[in-house]
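**Fold tokens**
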Amino acid sequence: MPGGRDRVRAMEQPRQAEFTADEFIAWALEQPSGRYELSNGLVVAMAAERAVHNQGKLNAVIALRAGIAARGLSCRAMTDGMAVRVDERTVYEPDALVRCGPPLPRDAVEVRDPVIVVEVVSPSSRGIDGGAKLAGYFALPSVRHYLIVDCEAKVVIHHRRDETGAIAVEIVREGSLMFDPPGLTIEVRDIFDGV
């Protein structure tokens, strides 16, 4: 059978497809289940979440939403599921984010201008959250705050970029986290409530 041998070889040696950000987002929308990110052109399946991780990200969104409401800001807190394009070969899906300005279209799947990005540490993500994602998120001009939340240690690492572009790091176990811009405050205890 012509071409039969080539088909067998292709099945024996599957090729890892590389995607652009646009190709990846279109592909991810067609997947029946699972969550994925794109890292330097390669698809990365996200691990199943533990209960503590899920509670931490939910608490972060609730705290951010309350902080936005308390100040009457034209911002929205969003949970995971929204894509954040870092570049043309990398798309992350943070655990939570805050975006300010007019509402996104109802069918949007991507946030191009987050102000605050939150990642809750899991055993499989610890290295990338503090490395590639830290550098990637701050490659976006809109990002002013990046939080790494460690529910096991009950600590938040707050990376804050000022108007000059300098990034300061604060390790916070209690008290308040202030985000300026956009001008909101949340309590650390609210992130760890029930975890």
